[in-house]
Amino acid sequence: MKIAYVVNTYPRPSHSFIRREIRALEAQGHQVIRLAMRADTAPLVDADDRTEAAATHRVLDQGAVALLGACLAAPFARMIRAAKLAVACGRRGRGGVPGTGGVARHLVYLAEAAYVARHCQQRGVDHIHAHFGTNSATVAMLAHVLSGIPYSFTVHGPEEFDAPRALSLGEKMRHAAFTVAISSFGRSQLMRWADFADWPRIQVVHCGIDPNRFADPVPMPSGAGHMVAVGRLSEQKGQMLLIEALALAVQQAPDLRLTLVGDGELRAPIEAAIAARGLARHVRLTGWLDEAGVRAELADAHVLVLPSFAEGLPMVVMEAMAAARPVLATSIAGVPELVVPGETGWLVPAGDAITLAEAMVTLARTPNDRLMTMGQAGRARVLDRHDIAREAAKLASLIVR
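^ that's the sequence the OP posted. Answer follows.
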């Protein structure tokens, strides 16, 4: 098949799961055209991301003339229908909800969709697949109306679940050939906003890992209590609470150490919190790392810690488990579908610094051989559920139905 992938901003350091899915589809013989509305403004540190950037066609870079020409070339009746749909979705998106836009913004999405539709028709695309239920899914839906090419989209959460009405998720699912959730929890949230008749077309396709990149897990390092957290430094990811919990935990487990991998808008406040609590010798910040760098940090740690307040089903949990490392995470969204308390890690309530600190002390006192047993159980679980080749084949099978 020839499949067009539509993403708002691609590639990005945090979107390696899209790259893996695309490459797995290509390895199975499908041709994938990458269409992004825009490039990321952040530097790409991973060589694979830079390769993807070179292979990606950016719609807004084509300029207003190209987008207007695509609008004028679209069949009049289809354009009228698409315009009415865009306006209706834009009206739902009013009210200042980030990422949902209004009528004016949806008319821009319509112009982008006209270009995408024409581009896909000229290249003989069989199916359009978008990632995220935000504006990329809007563009895919409108491109479908303009071209007749079927489309689908993957919803990750948590952003889509914060504003489902404003994002017209129900409308997008109704027009789609199928909708993908990355976890059973995600599917349940989509079912809240879909008509009963659309429920069978909401399918779970997990984000996947490449087992070959985790073929020989590094043994558990010596010492104890080295945790690593990986993710954007933002309110959603809970790193400020993590620092608060660590300050409590080191009173009982003074050898605890934490490596924070990632960057973002909260870096300065996090650094200030570390200094204010006297944790400088316990915490190290690395900034963004490429995939090899993340794997190296996981190998050097005893446990992955995920203190998030909202998630979909984080890739880093899968990567840590594939690397045979236990996971200490908040019990939210799809995380409990992977992390089994007492077997592959620990789950704690979100937003509870005291319970998180108690779990840190527990892991610091857990013998390394027990941690390795938990890590191996997690590795078996994630390889069974999240092999990217199997998940990509599952997605392809949905496309050809």
